[in-house]
Design brief:
This protein has 120 residues and is mainly α. The chain has helices at 6-21, 25-38, 43-55, 59-72, 77-89, 93-106, 110-116.
Length: 120
Amino acid sequence: MPQPTPETHVIAFRTAERLLDARDPRGAVQLLDSVIAAHPENTAARLLRARAYFAAARLGAAEREFQVVIEREPDNAYAHFALARTLQRAGRGGEAVRYFRLAAALDPRPDFLAAARFGQ
């Protein structure tokens, strides 16, 4: 079997994006596992895998991946928001509020602000 190349990893990443859009998160995770194994520093691949885990209701795995992204990119508002959604979905709404508020502080988009519930 031929060795994967950087080009095959790019193809796998793009295919994983399409699979996630097509509501096949498990297929996306399978492709991203090999990309991340070869390039563990690739934050974009980790963020995409976190989204796929969330879509597949693998909340513990999603939480861990979102945390890795936040450690590497503390100013990534989307990662904070998605981690909050993950915690909320896992029944940990109290913990989620902090991340909703961080997301809104980093990027005051209307959906982030609404989720942050400032003043409540």
